[in-house]
Amino acid sequence: MSYIHQISLNWFVVYYFTLGIILLVNGLIWFSRPAPFQQYLCDHARRDERPALLIKTIRYLMLFSGASLMLALIPFSWVELIFSVWSLVVLFILGSILLRWKQLKNLILERPQAVLGQIRKGGYMMFSVGIVLLLLAWYRLSMFGFA
Fold this sequence. Notes:
There is one protein chain. The chain is mainly alpha-helical. The chain has six helices and no strands. The protein has helices spanning 3-32, 35-46, 52-73, 78-99, 101-110, 112-143. The relative contact order is 0.20.
């Protein structure tokens, strides 16, 4: 296996595993206790400022998704390319939601119970994506005889 293939393999295994664990834990927190995140959003909506935590998260995910896209193309891999494009699409959706913060903050303040439901749904989705990412990490390791 060449050096660049080994770098790509290591990157995706670490990235899948780390992101999978983060999504699993955050998904569990969001669907079991959505109130703290709802309160965070309400506080920012009342102060008329965008949530800095979400902006930082999007910024870092954009950095890692760009690196993943490059590493998926160098030793070409369909699985990693689809994952990288999917993560960029998710980032685009999250960014477009934050661009409409002025409209969204009014909805957050008017319908707090609906926000709790959406946070729970987001937690379920994060949990399921975390499981898929851990399976992808296992797949990459087993593909080369490491698992």
